[in-house]
Design a protein that fits this description.
Layout (H helix, E strand, L loop, with lengths): L1 H13 L3 E2 L4 E8 L2 E3 L5 E2 L5 E4 L4 E7 L14 E5 L4 E3 L9 E6 L8 E6 L12 E6 L1 H8 L4
Parallel strand pairs: 2-6, 5-11
Antiparallel strand pairs: 1-2, 2-3, 3-4, 6-9, 7-8, 7-10, 10-11
The protein binds copper (II) ion.
Length: 149
């Protein structure tokens, strides 16, 4: 009961991670400083974004440049790619179109890892070139993405 309560609180306060029978939603913030998760933790090779194997996942990339930064003029476009050449690409995100979502099923065709990067020559592009997306089992995904994880 304690766990259920804390999950409900987590979703209510941030509304960024949700699980339904059809898909999981994950938010990734994009700025000149890099890719960040919904808790503002930097994502990268040392801290991959984890996605559940075999579940339809919707990743929402959100434009998060600071208003007082030159990077507010940035345009980002994110590609997700796998070692076998499978690639999907987001719409452009910028100050007047702040969100783009991409949906896929992690683990299809034996893929166990993906990489996301910005395809645009932008301010901060060196921070936006290696978001590692790791496929994990659904059980461990629930544990790591849940509150306190
Ligand atoms: Cu960019």
């Amino acid at each position: 009961m304690v766990l259920m309560f804390s999950i409900a609180t987590f979703q209510g306060s941030l509304a960024t991670v949700s699980a339904s029978s059809t898909h999981m939603e994950l938010m990734v913030k994009v700025s000149e400083r890099g890719f960040f998760d919904e808790k503002d933790t930097l994502l990268g090779p040392q801290n991959p974004l984890k996605v559940p194997k075999g579940k339809r996942v919707k990743i929402i990339f959100v434009f998060e440049e600071a208003l007082n930064s030159l990077a507010i003029g940035n345009v980002h476009q994110i590609a997700i790619t796998a070692d076998d050449g499978w690639t999907i690409e987001s719409d452009k995100i910028w100050v007047f179109n702040r969100k783009s979502t991409m949906t896929f099923v992690p683990g299809e065709s034996g893929r166990n890892q993906y990489r996301a990067y910005c395809t645009v020559d932008c301010i901060g592009m060196d921070q936006l070139n290696n978001l590692v997306i790791r496929v994990v089992g659904l059980g461990s995904w629930r544990q790591t993405v849940g509150p306190g994880g």
